[in-house]
Amino acid sequence: MADVVWTPQPGSQSLFLSCPHFECLYEGTRGPGKTDALIMDFAQHVGLGFGLSWRGILFRETYKQLSDVVVKTKKWFRRIFPGARFNESDMGWRWPGGEELLLRYMNRPDDYWNYHGHEYPWIGWEELTNWAGPDCYDAMKACCRSSDPRVPRKYRATCNPFGKGHNWVKHRFIDPAPPGVPIRDGNGRIRVRLHGSIRENRILLAADPDYLKSLEADTNVNRRRAWLYGDWDIVAGGAVDDVWDRESHVLRPFEIPHSWRIDRSFDWGSSRPFSVGWWAESDGTEVRMADGRMRCLPRGTLVRVAEWYGWNGQPNEGCRMLAVEIAEGIRRREAEHPALKGRRVLPGPADASIFDAENGVCIADDMGKRGVRWERADKRPGSRRNGLEKVRKLLKAGLERPMEHPGLFVFDTCTHFIRTVPVLPRSERDPDDVETEAEDHIYDETRYRATARVTTTTSQELGL
């Protein structure tokens, strides 16, 4: 009897390799053996007679990140398939029967065109939360096909919570259904997610009994919750996670004093979402909170009382509304929203690009004709870094008890702010800025407002 080189451990590994659905995400803690299961999901179909028809491609976000995958494939494939050969220059495995597995990186959506028209009945994604958005992942689905009807089609991915893609992966796979419960998309295809725990991996825990202790010792609370427990209900991003606390910053709506200034901020988008935020700025007047308590928010404190997020229901995808339609929608919301109706809403900062004229058309002018005016947001060199620092400063002040400095708060009705801003990652290129490929549109209009120079309102500004 031949020695068994590798076999899936009972639990999530076995479920992943036997999953019958087209699209499957293997998520969870660190250490259940997700990478091994991913490469073995391809390998289990080698030698079954598919030959040249069985082709696969496994992606990481960068070339450097592929090194761990290469090491693992060499560890197992050379023992299981003595006839298989790895081409170092081409980064691919080939078997005597014609089967092929390519190891590639995909950093941006345009990289898809390197594979357009190819057939890969098996496509794998290692650490899916490393991709800031779903564009690369979604584009390659067009290549998950085969002209051989015998061959299975499998779209597979692994990840932990945490990382710059935490938000879209959670929206796509985690929020709709519990682990193991199929989710049917609009095209009738089924996707499912399976949850793995390090406590299933008896081989690892026996070989390295201190591994759990190293995860428990992580001083980053959110990362520890993600990697040790596979907890998706965390603030996992890096830009503001250390100064954000939902219990402190999210407020139930209360009546805004008439002496407080109300204005709005705006980040333009068409193929990407646009974002409108309405802000009440405290003048130090004491307010009655929703629970009946009186509270004094320091002068200059910003409260996000309403928002309008122009998306199509998918993270980081816009709804392509015209500027005039957005302006009309703003006017309608200001006439109907409980926190805004009957109040004078002043022009606030907007993305400076709306003031640029193209072919004689200016977005700001089009919106102005519908009664919605804006001020230019500060987009001078260094403004992005200054904006992040100011937003962090305001959020941190909101944690003070008692508060001595202006802070930033959000009504619990502003669900998209709560969904996107706390999980924004820092940029790998510039740690003093957020990752611009992430879903940063609400954050952008928030920093416009946070850095705006607001002067005392005069009767002329009010149109009186």
UniProtKB/TrEMBL annotation:
Protein name listed in UniProt: Terminase-like family protein
Domain of life the protein comes from: Bacteria
